[in-house]
Each structure stands twice: as structure tokens, then as C-alpha cells.
Amino acid sequence: MMYGVPGPYVFDATSARKVPAVGRAIQLYGGMCKQMPLDAYRNGSLLPRPMLLARPDPDRGRPWFVQCNVEDYLLNGNAIAYVTSRGSDGWPTSLVWLPASWVYIQWTPSMAEDVTYYYAAWGSQPLNNDDVIHVRRGADRMYPVRGVGVVEEHLTTLDRAAAEEEYETNTLQGAAVPSVAVIAPQAQIDDTAAEAAKAMWVSKFGGSTREPVILPNGTQVIPLAWSPSDTQLIEARKLTLLDIANLFNLDGYWLGAPVAGMTYRTAGPQYQQILRTSIEPVITDFEDEWSYRLLPRGQTIQFDRNKLLADDFATTANAVVALVTAHIITPQQGFSLMGLSATLQTKGGPSDPPPDQPPQPPPLPDAQSAPQPEGATTP
Fold it and tell me: Which of 60, 304, 316, 377 is the most buried (most CB within 10 A)?
């Protein structure tokens, strides 16, 4: 019980979403992760993107699939996908996301590998363990085959945040105070006169009017506001934003918490910081498990982090020019990094030669198309 109102308000991953800061945090994680395409690599070399990574679930988009898995990973501690088809080589060709709250994990502690998965929507038959792709957030020390979500780890903090919002709602709806108190100059005033004076005051000043008022000598008008304890709700909510940012491993800046001494930085360093400290630990778990379960040995899955690290257009253009000048990348790769067509040129047109290449002489006509003298025959 918090602030004199009954609870609990947060008791699972679904109820935790009612806290605005929690919604912001999971949208931040899911939104940033789903912007990064999935690529396949072998020995550091980029491979053509397989259809499984371009669209894991044929009936759903890749961004949606990634976001749902990331949200389950954070809130429930377990992100689960299921293989629905395999190719002739035995490797998966399509997946489906399974909501973690509908999946039950049965484990016999005496046998480390004796783990059985059940999906409530598909009846009482156990799932094929070879087709279950399970990404865990840490481990439950009492049940190590499952992960632990943020909600389970910090249930009391999230319940307090929801209770604060509930108490503030009740205060605004049922504990409002009058705007002013008018104290009459006479010591005694009957109820009829007091009610008539109040009705006249409301009729004159109840709207947006600002008419002058003439009161008897000695009348006092005292503005009223919330009690000091109620006004502390504002400060409490600021500190709650910081608490939720901490439990989601985020800087308070991203959730709107007060930040002191924040210096201006461009988008690149900002995203680099959140990528390294917050996003990277999450996507590393997915990359490791998905690489091992979805691709042939020797291939790995990586999120394209360049989509988050891209700075403003001018900064990116300067960086690409430096890389091309140093012969680290080709001009075509530079166009790709900037999201431009490789046929574009800085000046002239696509038919102009590069600046460092001398113009080529026109091709000589062949024997068939060359003009022949009169009377000559073509051999």
C-alpha cells in the first residue's frame, strides 16, 4: 500500500506498461533495435542477406518481430521464437514470435538438459526443443533455465511509481481546494448571505473574466493551493523518473528526468553512448543465440549499428570524403553509406569521367560501319 491507496498496481509485465516511463523505456529499446537491419557475416566478411534475416516471420515485418522479442526480453526476461519451417539443409527458413507470458518452462533440476517448453495457445503438447529459440536476460538463481525481467527484479519500485500516479489522480479529482478564501469583515454571517455572496462571486469571476471587484472595508481574499505534502508529488515524480531510468540501465536524459550539467552533443555521440551502455548488452545476447541456432556454423548474425551511429548529413559527408580520400573505402561504398545512388556525381553527370582520370579518345569505327569509297566492296 502506497500513499494510503490500495495496491498492488504493478504485478506483471502487462501492468508495468501503465507507468509512462516504462513505456518510454521499452519504446526506446525496441525502436532503436528494430531500426538496425540484421546481416550475416563469415570471418568478418558481409554475406548476402538471407531471407530469414530480412523477414524472419513471413506474415510479419522484421521490425515488428525484433521489437516484440526485445520487449519480452526486458519486461519478462525471456524472448522466445519458434521455428516453423526448415530448408533442405535442415537450417531454419522461417520463425514465429511466441509471447513469453504464454510460454511455460518445465525443468527437472537433477538433469541439466531436461527442459520442456509449453505454449498455452497450442494446447498441452510440449514444443520441440530443437525449434525453440530462447534468449534469456540473465538467469533466475532458483530456476536457472529462465531469465529474469526488469519487472520481476524491481517490482516494488514500479508499484510505487504506479501508486504515485494513482494518488495524484485521486488528488486532482477528489481532493481539490477552492481557488480563494473570502473572509468577511463582520464576525458573524448567516448561511443565506454567505451562499448569496459566493454565487455572486462565481457568476462574476467563474470564467475567464477579469472584472474589478469592490468589497467592504476589512474583507480579506486569500488565494489557496495544494497542501505542502501534495505539492511534493512533483518532486517525487522527478525522482521516480530517475529510478526507472536506472533500473532500465538508461541515462535519466532519455526519460525526461532532470539532468544537471548536460553539455551539447551532436546525435552521433549521444547514440554512441546509449548504444554502448544500454543497447549493446541487449543485442549481444540476441546475436549470440540467434547466430548459433539460425545460421550454419561459421556464420554470425549482427545488427547493423551504423544505422544508429550515423550523424547529421554534413558530418557524415565529411567523414565519407576523408575515408574515400584515404582509399579506405571506394566512392561506391561512400554513396552507400550516405544512402545515395551510386550513379550520382558531384558535378557534370553520370557520364563524366572521375576527376583523376584523363578523358578517353572516342572509339574507332569498325570496318562494317566505316564509310566506304565508291566502288569498294567489303571483304
Answer: 316
